């Protein structure tokens, strides 16, 4: 009798242990890890280490933001798109036209308007396009970006066509910090915007909504079967991703003080996807690593070999896809795990 | 009393091919109804018609007396229909807990929340865990579904559907592919389901059908051949000819 009691008590204890562990798993998943401080500390360190490369640095940061927006919709929700530059471009032209035609030169509100317009475009196009999947969706998103580019070319009086709109003027940031020749203000501005939006995306992917995105990515038929409004969820995440891409585009315009229709290029859509795949999809910081490596390689190799730098980037992409399916961040995670295992035999 | 689920003269054509022909079916509250028939009879198609995966060509589907024929899938599910799949449709890269969490969160209308962590939804987690414990899956809560043996994956398949708290449950060959040494686990679960739920089970194993069901509908080539009690079906010569006989030949 006593033996039975003990085993029943043990079973009950095991059950509560399992319960506690399961709750802890979900409850701790979104907690910050120490390693997460590293990219931000490095970004701050770069500000002091390379004071004369800050214009380039701000371009890297806004590409991180652009890649992050793609990670949200491709990496987390599983939406394949080759037209993400459409939203980057809409944001970029919104920021430009606000100051040039509207006389609205305040930069931060410019970002907000760019986000609203790109987000609305994402919601509207998503409502139609996200009924399709796979190759069909790939081609439709690609066509959307091309059509926007052509529209910009038709409205040459407004957009400046392929010559673009140079020499844009913006008010000092927060009314205090004027953009300087070395891009110091631009860099810190881009870093602050990236940090805020990165934390927002991080919150979203760990939310119940983010969990449904994982469900849609893993098995859309089952999501329908448990009563999830799949299209609505996809449209929402697509609009959020579009809004963030729009902010990245507006940052591009504001930090460069010019914009051309090149922002809508297929190269831009494909480039951001390459960055994300290099870094690793669906893991937030993959966007960080991928964009930094791509941009630094491009910057360095295009000086060493202006003709062939794309070959090296392509080779790196092939190697990543073949040998590191989870991207460079996946490799880092594996390395970290192996180190830990060696330390505790 | 209105039936939990009522299907009236349901038809579905793919071009010239009729996969459902004037199907009538009535599931009272708490029904234990089996749907049998040879391969290609349209059993899974009927499940897809009931849940709204496919729109019917003609006919009506009533849930608790309300016409749901034109409602989209998500709206029907929210009104209390749940299903399992003949071939597992699971979130294979997620943990068992997350698989059930998703179903509970949809039912509790928590899934649209963007700004709080999934782990802060304690009520959702508690209900998901309770569901896993009821099916003795709690020990596997944190394992990825794709790492589980097939029999336990079939239990997750059922756990998700039960976590939806359905009034009508459609089980599409719940024990399919499970080795016979493990199939009793699944049959025990099915046998112990809430007597309030109306259940339609598609099953090939006649032992299971005769043990579990109080009514049986035989579907052949998209049409109802006959409906009756297990004794009536067992005695029906036509059923023997088109279905049971076939099974005996295989056996």
What report would you give on this structure?
The complex is a heterodimer of chains A (345) and B (251). Chain A has helices spanning 2-28, 37-49, 54-76, 85-100, 107-129, 134-154, 156-159, 184-205, 208-218, 220-225, 230-256, 266-279, 285-304, 309-323, 327-343. Chain A is an all-alpha fold and 345 residues long. Chain A has a domain at 50-264. The two termini of chain A are 41 Å apart. In chain A, 46% of the residues are buried. With 251 residues, chain B is α/β, with parallel strands linked by helices. Chain B has two domains: 1-80 and 166-239, Rossmann fold (3-Layer(aba) Sandwich), CATH 3.40.50; 91-164, no CATH class. Chain B is 37% helix and 24% strand. Chain B is built from nine helices and ten strands. Chain B has helices at residues 43-51, 73-78, 96-107, 122-134, 150-163, 180-191, 206-212, 230-235, 237-250, and strands at 5-14, 17-27, 32-36, 58-63, 66-67, 81-83, 168-172, 198-202, 215-220, 223-228. In chain B, strands 6-7-8-3-9-10 form a six-stranded mixed beta sheet, sandwiched between helices. Chain B has a four-stranded antiparallel beta sheet with strand order 2-1-4-5, with helices on one face. In chain B, helix 4 (122-134) packs across helix 5. Chain B is globular, with a radius of gyration of 19 Å. The termini of chain B are far apart. The mean pLDDT of chain B is 90. The interface between A and B is large, with 36 and 49 residues.
């Amino acid at each position: 009798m006593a033996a039975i009691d003990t085993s029943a008590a043990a079973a009950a204890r095991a059950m509560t242990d399992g319960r506690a562990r399961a709750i802890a798993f979900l409850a701790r998943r979104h907690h910050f890890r120490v390693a997460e401080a590293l990219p931000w500390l490095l970004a701050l360190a770069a500000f002091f280490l390379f004071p004369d490369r800050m214009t380039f640095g701000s371009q890297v940061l806004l590409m991180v933001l652009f890649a992050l927006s793609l990670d949200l919709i491709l990496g987390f929700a599983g939406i394949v798109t080759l037209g993400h530059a459409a939203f980057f471009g809409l944001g970029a032209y919104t920021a430009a036209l606000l100051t040039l035609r509207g006389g609205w030169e305040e930069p931060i509100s410019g970002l907000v308007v760019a986000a609203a317009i790109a987000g609305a475009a994402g919601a509207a196009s998503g409502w139609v396009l996200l009924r399709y999947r796979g190759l069909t969706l790939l081609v439709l998103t690609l066509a959307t970006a091309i059509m926007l580019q052509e529209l910009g070319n038709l409205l040459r009086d407004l957009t400046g066509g392929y010559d673009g709109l140079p020499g844009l003027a913006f008010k000092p940031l927060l009314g205090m910090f004027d953009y300087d020749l070395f891009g110091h203000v631009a860099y810190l501005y881009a870093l602050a915007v990236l940090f805020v939006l990165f934390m927002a995306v991080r919150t979203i992917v760990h939310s119940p909504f983010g969990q449904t995105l994982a469900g849609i990515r893993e098995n859309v038929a089952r999501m329908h079967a448990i009563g999830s409004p799949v299209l609505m969820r996809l449209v929402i995440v697509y609009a959020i991703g579009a809004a963030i891409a729009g902010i990245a585009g507006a940052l591009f315009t504001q930090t460069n003080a010019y914009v051309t229709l090149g922002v809508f290029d297929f190269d831009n859509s494909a480039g951001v996807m390459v960055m994300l795949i290099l870094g690793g999809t669906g893991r937030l910081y993959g966007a960080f690593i991928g964009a930094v490596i791509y941009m630094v390689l491009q910057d360095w190799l295009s000086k060493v070999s202006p003709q062939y730098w794309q070959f090296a980037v392509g080779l790196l992409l092939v190697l990543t896809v073949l040998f590191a399916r989870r991207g460079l961040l996946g490799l880092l995670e594996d390395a970290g795990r192996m180190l830990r295992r060696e330390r505790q035999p | 009393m209105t039936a939990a689920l009522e299907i009236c003269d349901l038809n579905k054509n793919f071009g010239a091919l009729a996969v459902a022909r004037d199907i009538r079916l009535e599931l009272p509250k708490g029904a234990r109804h089996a749907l049998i028939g040879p391969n290609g009879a349209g059993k899974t198609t009927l499940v897809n018609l009931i849940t709204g995966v496919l729109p019917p060509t003609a006919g009506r589907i009533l849930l608790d007396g309300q016409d749901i024929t034109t409602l989209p899938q998500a709206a029907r599910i929210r009104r209390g229909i749940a299903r399992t799949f003949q071939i597992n449709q699971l979130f294979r890269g997620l943990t068992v807990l997350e698989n059930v969490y998703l179903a509970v969160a949809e039912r509790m209308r928590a899934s649209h929340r963007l700004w709080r962590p999934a782990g802060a939804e304690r009520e959702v987690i508690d209900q998901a865990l309770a569901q896993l414990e009821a099916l003795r899956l709690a020990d596997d809560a944190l394992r990825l579904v794709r790492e589980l043996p097939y029999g336990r994956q079939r239990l997750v398949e059922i756990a998700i559907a039960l976590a939806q708290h359905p009034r009508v449950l459609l089980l599409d060959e719940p024990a399919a592919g499970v080795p016979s040494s493990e199939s009793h686990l699944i049959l025990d679960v099915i046998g112990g389901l809430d007597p309030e739920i109306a259940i339609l089970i598609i099953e090939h194993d006649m032992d299971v059908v005769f043990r579990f069901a109080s009514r049986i509908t035989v579907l052949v080539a998209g049409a109802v051949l006959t409906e009756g009690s297990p004794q009536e079906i067992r005695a029906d010569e036509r059923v023997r000819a088109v279905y049971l006989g076939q099974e005996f030949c295989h056996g």
